[in-house]
Write a structure and sequence with these properties.
With about 200 residues, this protein is mainly alpha-helical. The protein has one domain. About 65% of the residues lie in helices and about 5% in strands. It has 7 helices and 2 strands; from the N terminus they run H-H-H-H-E-E-H-H-H. A hairpin with a 2-residue loop joins strand 1 and strand 2. The two termini are about 35 Å apart.
């Protein structure tokens, strides 16, 4: 534990899950949905770069959640191990494959003319095509986190499991608002498209 990651008691774990982890998840799912909507609409309006903003937001929030779920906790960030009482984080392709490209995308103004292709369920993709895959992988990890919390059978873990489940459902519900927004419906009707939810 470090100065930025003091040990958490049960009330603090609930608060961290309720506020901080949920905040990351809801913005991630909303941004991934917006990215998908913009990808489907293909508006091409100069100065309306919402898809780029959504990509940036997805990368930021996905990286935070991947670090929580799939990497060891450090003195600078909490990890799933502190909640589950285990020493190994959840398994994900993040650590082996996605971490370095995401970090570089967010933190360094480097030459991006030679893009790295990342593995996805649909084959190799550039990072700017990955928002929905990042969000779905985080959701998979979140559900695994819920399941692992339930395995202990301890009341305090069951309470956290229930809270995590509620927060996941709420984040998915919030992402649906992006699909149902007036502006999205307007553009979809002009383009005569039926937009589907991502999650």
């Amino acid at each position: 534990m470090g100065t930025n990651t003091p040990p958490l008691d049960q009330a603090e774990k609930k608060d961290y899950l309720d506020k901080h982890l949920f905040n990351e998840l809801r913005w991630l799912l909303g941004a991934a949905t917006e990215w998908s909507i913009q990808d489907q609409l293909k508006l091409g309006l100069e100065g309306y770069d919402v898809q780029v903003y959504a990509l940036d937001s997805v990368a930021l929030h996905a990286r935070s959640l991947f670090e929580f779920f799939a990497t060891k906790a450090t003195g600078n960030h909490y990890g799933v191990t502190q909640f589950l009482g285990v020493t190994t984080p959840l398994q994900s392709c993040y650590e082996a494959e996605w971490a370095d490209p995401l970090h570089k995308f967010l933190m360094h103004a480097q030459d991006r003319s030679q893009s790295v292709l990342l593995n996805s369920p649909d084959g190799k993709k550039e990072l700017n095509e990955m928002p929905v895959y990042f969000a779905r992988e985080v959701l998979r990890l979140w559900e695994e986190f819920e399941n692992e919390l339930g395995k202990s059978g301890k009341q305090q873990d069951l309470e956290l499991q229930d809270l995590a489940r509620q927060k996941r459902r709420k984040a998915i519900e919030n992402a649906q608002y992006v699909v149902d927004s007036d502006i999205t419906r307007l553009f979809a009707s002009v383009k005569r498209l039926h937009l589907k939810p991502v999650f």
